[in-house]
Amino acid sequence: MRQRGSQYWDWADCQLNSRCHDEKLSNGAEIDVQVRLSREGVTQAFIGIYADNGRMLYEEYHDARESETMTQAMLWCVGRARTLATGHASSGPWSIASLHKVI
């Protein structure tokens, strides 16, 4: 069970439809990326990084990914989450094929 931090709860709104990407990295970290459209039609995003025991390591959210679709925001956020979780820049650019699980 993930231990969510204040960034997640500030961002969360169960009434908005969102897309999610969860991934377990080779170093044991788990990333959780969520994108959605606000009530005003603005693309928003959340990035969470968690230890294998569910402990929160890092969270951030973006209220406005200007001029990006949900897919573009998802790709950027997954790349950022992977980079933050591994401590180094990963190969890119990201593509839809690089996402293991998009719900």
Description:
With 103 residues, this protein is an alpha+beta fold. The chain has helices at residues 6-11, 70-86, and strands at residues 18-24, 30-37, 43-50, 56-62. It contains 2 helices and 4 strands. A hairpin with a 5-residue loop joins strand 1 (18-24) and strand 2. The protein is globular and about 35 Å long. It starts with 5 loop residues before the first helix and ends in a 17-residue tail after the last helix.
What is shown here, in short?
With 103 residues, the chain is an alpha+beta fold. The chain has helices at residues 6-11, 70-86, and strands spanning 18-24, 30-37, 43-50, 56-62.
Cα(first) to Cα(last) distance is 19 Å
**Helix segment tally:** 2
Q: State the order of secondary-structure elements, H for helix, E for strand.
A: HEEEEH
Contiguous runs where pLDDT drops below 50 for at least 5 residues? 93-103
Please supply descriptive tags for the structure shown above.
103 residues; alpha+beta; 4-stranded antiparallel sheet; 2 helices; globular; disordered C terminus
